[in-house]
Amino acid sequence: MAVDPKLALNGRAKFNPAKPWRVEDSLELYHVNAWGKGYFSINDAGHVVVRPYTTPEREIDLYEVVEGLKARDLTTPVVVRFSDILAQRLRHLHAAFQQAITENDYQNRYAAVYPIKVNQQRLVVEEVYRYGKEFGFGLEVGSKPELLAVMAMTESEPERLIICNGFKDDSYIEAVTLATKLGRTIIPVVENFDELALILKHAANYRVRPRIGVRVKLFSEGSGRWADSAGEKSKFGLFATEIMELFNILKERNMLDCLQLVHCHPGSQLQDIRRVKDAINELAHVYAELKLMGAGLQYIDVGGGLGVDYDGSGTNFSSSMNYTLNEYASDVVYRIASVCNARAIPHPMIISESGRAIAAYSSVLIFNALGSSALDRFKVSGDPAADYTGSKELPQPILDLFEAYRSVSERRLVECYHDTLTAREQVLQMFNLGLLSLEFRALAERLYWATTAKIRDCCRKLDRRPEELDALESILSDTYFCNFSVFQSLPDSWAIDQLFPIMPIHRLDERPTRTGVLADITCDSDGKIDRFVSLRDVKRALELHELRPGEEYYLAAFLVGAYQETLGDLHNLFGDTHVVHIRLHDEGGWWIEEIVKGDTANKVLEYMEYDVAELYPALARDCERAIRDGRMTLAESQLLKRFYENELNGYAYLEPAGA
Q1: Residue 397 shares a structural domain with residue 312
Q2: Which of 472, 487, 521 is the last residue in one of the domains?
Q3: 400 and 447 in one domain?
Q4: Which of 241, 236, 227, 288 is nearest to 262 (CA)?
Q5: How confident is the model at residue 229 (pLDDT cuts 50, 70, 90)?
Q6: Dihedrals phi, psi of 114, to nearest 5 degrees
Q7: How far apart are CA 490 and CA 364, in angstroms?
Q8: What does pTM read for this prediction?
């Protein structure tokens, strides 16, 4: 992607180093206003603030939250959920469709159903259900365990929709049928043809007129990472031929009134609005045809797919979307209305399963940096007599490295870089042949990194950097070691290269002087984040501040409320982090509604079927043997046993000394 060098350097906005750093510069640098959509900003103290109602009058200081949690003995990493954002997302979704319904004179209503697979945590599902009550929103399940949870949760509101997707066995369908007798408005969606026979069997056994839905296998294909979840090769859905078979079976049994819903799944995180339009148009025509043939259709379920603009670019990019919520709602309503009006049939109730758009903004993962490693820390003077104190004669490749270091200038940047690469390669070849000592290899290493850092620093002064030197910023970026697990807390970042906005949550009134990638505390080389959001391109390093001894440095990953908590695994036995629900106080400020403590070491060991009750006694027996044999003193034994017992019951993540 072409970038104006006056505007950006390697995907980064250029800022005048002579001017004082301002909060506004941080807002621009990290693109907060673009991806934050009004929910996030920076205050005058240089702290990230959360604005659940997208207005500056009521905001929550994230750094203040972290300090408040620390005072309650809750250390990072921690997921902070903002319940008010969850409520606001539901209001936005309802308002967008309500506006589209009014503009298109649509003669029915809209309801979202929240797919609990997006975030099955009980508190999240309960909040979505509670906040969605005023709009008549429902829930969607895709498995028997999810169905069991939702059946209990909906006991007092039988009129609110429950949509049942996913593969269904005999007991699943039987439970759905019995839930119908309880008075639930529950609709099993036929995903494959065999499910119809189960529905009909249990409907007859329990004398129930079931509500039946059918998923249409669309010809229209999806887009982005989940393109294959739509189209003719998609996992679920019935072909047109199978839909006609289903229709005829119901007609023979005088049950066409039971066919009440048509459904499609156009994909997940659809970044291109054209795919949405194609899918809805096709589904609307299927609805119209079945309705005209005599089916008792009342609902049209447009499935998921409503995206989240993770990078804020508003483009047809896999971590973005080239449309707004209002545009999405308008297209859905307009296309369904147009088809129905043309065929003179009633407008159906519109359902969407927009879980990602509901949940993503509500959660923030906050973690602390443990330390950093910098490649430009290697310093040389460029004078062989000062940089080498040995008695042996310097080999020619090392002399070439000294010459390259001394020759760096704006006119010779590319030439010096080539000379440096060539000399280093020669040094490594000589070392591998046994012709060069480790001492010389270490000197060559210092010279190489010092020279490339010097070239990089010269490049930063240029309006237009030579293309061959574009990668230097990334090559020389620091590694910041951070107290979290990518695999547990940001699995999509590792698995599918999903971009999440990441930035420091404080010191944003200071100029960041370092660039770095983030490494987690797992022992896996994949446990890192080296791709960051940018409006123009993916950044390979993040602008960061120098770490200060004895002072915590906090960063946060935003928009992590969808899928991350439910997809996380136990790599290296790092379990769930602490989770805290924060609410705005009616009289100003914020308060903690709920604390869910993270997994302890013994809990994650139990997940892996270790007999935790036997672990401590086994170690204690070993300690006694060590005392008997004189390998350990009694005091040392007690110290080790106290450590072991405390850590078994302690947080699975790293904690500050004395915590």
Answers
A1: no
A2: 472
A3: yes
A4: 288
A5: low
A6: -85, 120
A7: 11
A8: 0.91
